[in-house]
Amino acid sequence: MPRRSADKKSNRSNTRRRRTASSKKPLKENMLLYEAVVMFFFASSLILIVSIYGNAGGFIGSGLRSLAFGLLGAGAYGLPLLLFIGAFFKIFNKGNVELNVKIILGFFLVVLASTAAHVWLIKTPQISGRFGESQAFFAVLVHYYKTSSRFHVAGGFVGGLLGDVFVLLLGKLGSYIVLFFLAALNVVVLTEKSFLRLLEKVKDALWTWFDLWRAQREKAKAERAATALEEMRAAAEPVPDALPPSVSPPADVPPAPVQEAVPDVVVQEKAAAKGASRQEILVEKDLEAAMERSMEERDFSPPPLSLLKENPFGGRGADKKGIEQNRNILERTLESFGVRAKVVDVSSGPAVTRYELQPDIGVKVSKIVNLSDDLALNLAAAGIRIEAPIPGKSAIGIEVPNKEVHSVFLREVLDTEEFRRFPGKLAFAVGKDISGKTMVADIGKMPHLLVAGATGSGKSVCINTLIASILYKSDPKEVKFLMIDPKVVELSVYNGIPHLLIPVVTDPKKAAGALRWAVQEMDERYQLFAEKNVRDLQGYNGALAAEGETKPLPQIVVIVDELADLMMVASNEVEEAIIRLAQKARAAGIHLIIATQRPSVDVITGLIKANVPSRIAFSVSSGVDSRTILDMNGAEKLLGKGDMLFYPSGYPKPVRVQGAFVSDQEVSAIVDYYKESQQSAYNEKLIQHLNRGAEEASEQPSDQDTLFDEALELCMEQEKASASMIQRKFRVGYNRAARIVDQLHDAGFIGPDEGSKPRRLLLDRASYLEKKRSLQEGADREGETETTDRPPQEQPSSENQEVRP
């Protein structure tokens, strides 16, 4: 028995070897046959090239040349090139069915060229009326063959036949139109490039040229206006009277002594200089007013798109082969774990491809979610993200990173119909989603945005993209920026653009004052709305336009680039201002953009999260940070470099987007364009207000709280002092309120602690007012003393002035 089993095994192995050897032999023969056919076409194409273009193919080459021109006419010039390119690609693409189809389409393009050449040369079709006469019909085609074979023109046998049919059916003009669109369709299929996209690029190039021409015209107009103003200034200067010709006295007569009239001359010169200076001042004021009017009346011209870089990867499509492989791997891996599911759709974006899985009935979603690490292992991916389920679909999304991540450039987002036709002035070019669709958001509808993520994940680029999008969309009269940059180097490049209310605030002490000013501006705007009986900024500007007012109230975008630094300096004031703005500023046209690289609960507090509904999360290190930003996991699975989760107000779930990229050079080009075309008009009152606040904060003793005086006033009004009262009144924490109470005690205004009772005042109301009045009078007397102690200025004495007749 053992011997028989061993014989059976050896027989099976021998049979298997014979089958393998027999199967390898036809495979090798097929490979050799394929190479022989390809080399034959390659050699034929070279012979046709030297025969058709050089007439150096000998007897056989001459025959092939006559045959090619006789059949295809002028289209024969493209036949050898088609064969050469097809044979070259067939060498490296065996079994590629798409290549065979493209070679056939290339031959069809050659036939279309022959047909067009025939339609171009003939006046009337020769086969008209000869369809029933076979001999006459064939004689016409033979004539076409001989003529094209001899003179290498027209369309030959094939082109003549098709050309006459086209002209009979459509006429010459109709034939041109149909042949053109057939050729265009053929080229689109061959190159896999969109013809409409090509036309759109041509249109965009024309618009860019027009924008540059208009900008140059505006610049020339501004230069002419400046030249005219200089001429006005030169004309306004006093011209000295012409001096009489000097007459020399005779040589023998001594010159008479000239009486000195220096004072008269000096007085006249001073009067003339004073009059000239007054006239120059008036002229300067007129010139400044004229310049301001010309700047206000100038039409808004956005920067040309040529300032931005084109995307070099814009024409690349999806990796179809890799997508098909991943689809099979997903289905097989899930099946190996007992999960039956099918990939029903695939969406490929710039950085991530999403595979939509539809599980069988009875399969739990959690079972697929728990297999994320196993799926990533089998796909050889750095990490995958599972969206279960996809909003609005009965499918589960598995997001797999692409092998090649293609950046999304800002220009390709701005250069779309979605951005051009966007109705709002606060359009934000976000980027492209997983399916490659352009994402454009409206800051006005968000109405406030929180941007957070780890260092280097793309926050600063996102802020620059947001600002650049608004600069391309809005007029400086309609949108203003208030930028706060404690890091100093991120937003300072925007200094000088006309959209800024004030220069970029980099001092944290001034930043809190700038936010308080925004709160004050919000309150003042609501008072204006109440006077006009309107509810929001749009209604107020409409009421102003109805009254003939041409200067609208602008929208204000407040950008805080690093919230963590401000929270370390003045957390209570900053948080209070942000919360008030987030709660009420939308209708007033004021919008907050807050960015931070430390998404912790002490920076992004619960009150800030509750009042800032829209968020953008970039890559973070842990799920805790992701939950702090989005209230859910997911941001820890992002790839970085612009990969974000965009969660605007009203969306059921975050959307994964590859953010638009704008470089520092492009930002500088946009800023330089605005600096050259328009002047910045800062709010001087706001600048002075912030400077005074910073000086007062620096002059104040470091050990005394900023609310010390106000807390003392409150205690005098209430005739008692307690930490809880100060805490309720000024909305501060208990620690700060207790510290203020201790400072009041140390200053001698209130008594010691008496347990649960409020502290008693050591001064009554009358004594406090008298002491305050005496302190004020003392300060006034000190100011008067400083004025009187100042040495008097030397006055010109009348004795020193000699007035002579």
From TrEMBL:
Family the UniProt entry places it in: Belongs to the FtsK/SpoIIIE/SftA family.
InterPro entries: AAA+_ATPase, FtsK/SpoIIIE/SftA, FtsK_4TM, FtsK_alpha, FtsK_dom, Ftsk_gamma, P-loop_NTPase, WH-like_DNA-bd_sf
Main location as per UniProt: membrane
One Pfam family linked to the record: FtsK_4TM
Protein's UniProt keywords contain Membrane: yes
Membrane topology: Multi-pass membrane protein
Subunit structure: Homohexamer. Forms a ring that surrounds DNA.
UniProt feature, compositional bias: Polar residues: 795-805
Originating organism: Anaerotalea alkaliphila
Keywords attached to this entry: ATP-binding, Cell cycle, Cell division, Cell membrane, Chromosome partition, DNA-binding, Membrane, Nucleotide-binding, Transmembrane, Transmembrane helix
Any one GO BP annotation for this protein: cell division
Protein name, as recorded: DNA translocase FtsK
GO-annotated molecular function: ATP binding; DNA binding
